[in-house]
């Protein structure tokens, strides 16, 4: 048994299920922002994924070194690095899945909204390139603020005449990962035994973990404990930013979450049945045009956007209170895309 396989088999069950090793179609995955704090560990994790046959790493600079480093890992995927805008098209051509962690990270005292003016422009230009060079690819948006960057990408794709709502995803998996981890810690349970849907958006109070639907029923937490876990999940990014004391944001856990969701998308493309993850997608679950909820993935991307299910009183209150902020973030993204 190889060291890589041994490592993955001894990892938590979520990681093991993500890196299955059966024979699969050839799939090209491109990471835009591959030399950054999220991009580098995400590149390594995607290199470990046997569903990836070609891994294309792009950034404005530094990517040849990252690509060379990652290419030495003895797994299936062939790795190429591309740097600078003149190589963006070549990086994207033929992609089945494009993952976008590009942009600046959060710093102490900075909200996701503070990131907007910088990251919105980056996402808009990258989305235009995707529309031109790989219009049929699935797009996984990690760049924050996701509540705004997903609508920006959608508007760019609409302008290019190639928008397909089934193929654009805001990656909210880190909220799910945190909710599972925090609940398991409080319930003194194995994190791999816990599943918690997280709905709404991907910033602060727009993040709504549905702890009433947790799969683990062996221990019931009090209302106060649930409220504290909800707030900790909503503030998870800030917790990391503060712990790193100005020297970074949630890069490693975000890379892990991004790899989990990308793997689910690849499994869906390959026809694996009943692949369900939470994601921020075009939706009719609420009156808002985009919303995060459980999504069934398939060969065309989104096969079905699932409903919210029964909510507790606390969750219903959270749902009503998040809608105005989430709506404003979406409208800000749409306005930027149309006016800039």
From TrEMBL:
Gene Ontology MF terms in the entry: L-malate dehydrogenase (NAD+) activity
Its BP terms in the Gene Ontology are: malate metabolic process; tricarboxylic acid cycle
Q: Which InterPro entries match?
A: L-lactate/malate_DH (IPR001557), Lactate/malate_DH_C (IPR022383), Lactate/malate_DH_N (IPR001236), Lactate_DH/Glyco_Ohase_4_C (IPR015955), Malate_DH_AS (IPR001252), Malate_DH_type1 (IPR010097), NAD(P)-bd_dom_sf (IPR036291)
Entry binding sites for NAD(+):
33-39, 59, 119, 142-144, 254
Gene Ontology CC terms:
mitochondrion
Q: Where is the signal peptide?
A: none
Q: Which UniProt keywords apply?
A: NAD, Oxidoreductase, Transit peptide, Tricarboxylic acid cycle
- Pfam families reported for this sequence: Ldh_1_C (PF02866), Ldh_1_N (PF00056)
Q: Which residues form the Lactate/malate dehydrogenase N-terminal domain?
A: 28-170
Matching SUPFAM superfamilies, A to Z? Answer: LDH C-terminal domain-like, NAD(P)-binding Rossmann-fold domains
Assembly state and interactors?
Homodimer.
Q: List the NCBIfam families.
A: MDH_euk_gproteo
Provide the protein name. Answer: Malate dehydrogenase
Native species of this protein? Answer: Prunus dulcis (Almond)
From the broadest rank down, the organism's phylogenetic lineage runs: Eukaryota, Viridiplantae, Streptophyta, Embryophyta, Tracheophyta
């Amino acid at each position: 048994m190889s060291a890589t396989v041994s490592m993955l088999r001894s990892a938590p069950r979520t990681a093991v299920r993500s890196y299955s090793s059966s024979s699969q179609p050839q799939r090209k995955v491109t990471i835009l922002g591959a030399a950054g704090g999220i991009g580098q560990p995400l590149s390594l994790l995607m290199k470990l994924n046997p569903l990836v046959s070609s891994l294309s790493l792009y950034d404005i600079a530094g990517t040849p070194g990252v690509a060379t480093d990652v290419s030495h890992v003895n797994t299936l995927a062939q790795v190429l690095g591309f740097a600078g805008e003149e190589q963006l098209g070549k990086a994207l051509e033929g992609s089945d899945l494009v993952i976008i962690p590009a942009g600046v990270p959060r710093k102490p005292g900075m909200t996701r909204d503070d990131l907007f003016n910088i990251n919105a422009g980056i996402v808009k230009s990258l989305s235009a390139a995707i529309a031109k060079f790989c219009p049929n690819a699935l797009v996984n948006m990690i760049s924050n603020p996701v509540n705004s960057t997903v609508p920006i990408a959608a508007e760019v794709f609409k302008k290019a005449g190639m928008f397909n709502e089934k193929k654009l995803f805001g990656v909210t998996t880190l909220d799910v990962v945190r909710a599972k981890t925090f609940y398991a810690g409080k319930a003194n349970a194995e994190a791999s035994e816990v599943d918690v849907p997280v709905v709404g958006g991907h910033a602060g109070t727009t993040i709504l973990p549905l702890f009433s639907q947790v799969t683990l029923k062996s221990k019931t937490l009090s209302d106060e404990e649930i409220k504290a876990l909800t707030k900790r999940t909503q503030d998870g990014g800030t917790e990391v930013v503060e712990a790193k004391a100005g020297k970074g944001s949630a890069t490693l856990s975000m890379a892990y979450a991004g790899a989990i969701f990308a793997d689910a998308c690849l499994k869906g493309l390959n026809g694996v049945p009943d692949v369900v993850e939470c994601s921020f997608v075009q939706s009719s679950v609420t009156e808002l045009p985009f919303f995060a909820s459980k999504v069934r993935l398939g060969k065309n991307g989104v096969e079905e956007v699932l409903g919210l299910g029964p909510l507790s009183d606390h969750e219903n209150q959270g749902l009503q209170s998040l809608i105005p902020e989430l709506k404003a973030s979406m409208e800000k993204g749409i306005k930027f895309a149309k006016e800039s």
